[in-house]
Every structure is written in C-alpha cells, then in structure tokens.
Amino acid sequence: MMGFMTKGNQSALAGLSPLDDVFTAPATDERLERAAAGLRERGYSVHVVDSPDDARELVTTLLPTGKDVFTAASATLENAGINKVIEESGRFRSVRAQLATLDDADASIKLGAAPDVVVGSVHAVTEDGVMVCASASGSQLSSYAGGARRAIWVVGAQKVVPDLDTALRRVRLYCLPKESERCMAVYGQPSIIGKILILEREYLPERGTVVLVRGELGV
C-alpha cells in the first residue's frame, strides 16, 4: 500500500525503525466490538466477520454492478482474494482493468482518484473508531477521503489499537518496515511514508463501510 521510494530518497532507509512484532496480535472479540461501536458512532456501516472468505463473500454482495470499482493496493485484499474477484471475474467494472489500457498519466490519476467505489484497507483502527492509512505516493488516499462515492475498507483484527498515538506507531514501527522488506525484494528499494490520512468521521450517509475480520489479515 505504501509503494516504493525513488533512489533520491534512499537515505531514509538509514532511519528506518526495526520491526515491532507486538502489532501482529489480533484484537480480542471485546476490543473488536469496541472498535465496531466506535466506527458506527462515527458514521460508518460496520460488519464483523469470522474469516477472509467471509469478508470476500460479503464485499462482493455489497458492490454495485455497472459502477467503476477501484481496488487500492492492499495485502489485505490480496490475501482475501478480493482484488482477484473484482478484477478478473467479469462481474464488476474494474478501474484497474481500465488503467491497464490507458497511456495518459493524467487520465489514469483522475480515474483512480474519483471512482464510483473504492475497496481497500487501512493500517490501523483505534478502539474509538479512527482509521489511519499511510502511503508513499498518496494514490489511493484521495478516493478514501472523498473522491469515491462509496468506500469499503476490509481490516484484520491485528490492526485494532487502543488510540491514535498507537495507530501512528503501528504505521511507523510495523507497517513501514514490513512494506520496505517487500519493496526491497521486489524493486530493490525500500519504502517511505509520503502521506498519512486520518479518517475521523464519515458525514455522508451510507458512504463508508468497514468490514472487520477476526484474526490476522494483511499487514
């Protein structure tokens, strides 16, 4: 989700924090229910499901047909097989499939920034319902914040944290090192945090949906 850095920014690798595995433990059912209640109070529709398979089946029932659906880069979506269903099943109008046919960079940016629906994840959810997402380029953040008419976030229980300070620590001490490991293996370059989005509340009725998954899913 964060992407990879350019060669000019590789000096950031020297300041990268070591991986903190404390953030891999899934929240208890009690904490998960507190997060669900907090999200509902902040204007989100919330579903709590037992498994990645349940999340995939639910998301496919929530998605409209005949609308542009953008799948944000996300290990959560990949692990649950959600992006594959959206992009390859032919049941939905995939923005990523459209992007593959475009040579115009500006048109690609606009298409990804304002789809009808965005499906993705976040890096942390506080027990009172605040969500945090980091990105290197910010490519998915505009659709998360308001560019998409509807947004669906799928979130593993290990991402539930007590408060906003802990959420930001999770981003820096766990998510960034994990993404840098992946980027080093794939691109030969580490990742960076370019932008952080804090989602405090959803004011448009029925715009935002959060699917909380019991157990560890994604990073």
CATH class bucket = Alpha Beta
Q: What do we call the CATH topology? A: Rossmann fold
H/E topology pattern: HEHEHHEHHEEEHEEHEE
What share of the residues lie within helices? 25-40%
Major pleated sheet? 6 strands, parallel
Percent range for β-strand residues: 15-25%
The gross shape turns out to be globular
Low-confidence stretches: 3-15
Which architecture per CATH?
3-Layer(aba) Sandwich
In total, how many domains does the architecture comprise?
A: 1
Mean pLDDT: 89
Q: What is the radius of gyration?
A: 17 Å
Strand order of the largest sheet: 1-10-7-4-2-3
Gap from first CA to last CA: 9 Å
Number of helices: 8
Secondary structure category: alpha/beta
Number of strand elements: 10
Structure description:
InterPro entries: FTHF_cligase-like_sf, LUD_dom, NagB/RpiA_transferase-like. This is LUD domain-containing protein. Residues 32-213 form the LUD domain. It holds the Pfam family LUD_dom. This protein is an alpha/beta fold. The protein has one domain (23-213): NagB/RpiA/CoA transferase-like (Rossmann fold, 3-Layer(aba) Sandwich). The protein is 37% helix and 20% strand. The chain has 8 helices and 10 strands. The chain has helices spanning 29-41, 52-62, 75-80, 82-88, 95-99, 105-113, 141-147, 164-187; strands at 45-49, 68-71, 93-94, 117-120, 124-126, 131-135, 150-156, 160-161, 195-199, 208-213. The strands form 2 sheets. A 6-stranded parallel beta sheet has the order 1-10-7-4-2-3, sandwiched between helices. A 4-stranded mixed beta sheet has the order 8-5-6-9, with helices on both faces. Strand 5 (124-126) and strand 6 form a beta hairpin. The protein is globular, with a radius of gyration of 17 Å. The chain starts with 28 loop residues before the first helix and ends in a 6-residue tail after the last strand. The model is unreliable at 3-15 (pLDDT under 50).
